[in-house]
Amino acid sequence: VRSRHGVELDILSRKEETVQLINDTAALQSSIDSIRLKTNELRTNFQKQHAPLYARHDVSTSLHAMQYESLLVQVQKKKQRREDKMHHLKAEAERQRVETERMREETGRIRDEIEVFEGREEEEDEEMVGLTMQIRQVLAKKTSTRQTLNDAREVLQTAIENRDEWKSKC
Known about the structure:
The chain has 170 residues and is an all-alpha fold. It has helices at residues 2-50, 55-169. The chain contains 2 helices and no strands. The longest helix is centred in the middle third of the chain and has 115 residues, at 55-169.
């Protein structure tokens, strides 16, 4: 989210710079247009009246006009590069937004699975406790049955001994 806000702040600052560049470009274009008009007027006047006297000034004016045109081209290129960067940043921000949403959905899905697994684990634990209690009861019955069997054997053995003793006496 911080990264997205950073990108959005960067986009906003670039947008403000773009607006400023558009305004500067418009101002430069206006200046260039007025300079061109003045240059054309001066050329006409100079060619008619003062061409031989002010030839240097005419060349200087032409040089300034070429410099302003060059500056205008540079500003327009800079503006285009910034617009391209803005489009790239916008596309990147959208891609990150989609990726973030996908990760949120996956996190929710994983949390749901964890809850299901925890529920199953609790059920299995309860089953294990029940099975453990049944095993203990069976083992207790086995021990009790074994003890009863041993007692019965002792009683039987005593009965056999008594019978044999009575038989020998009779």
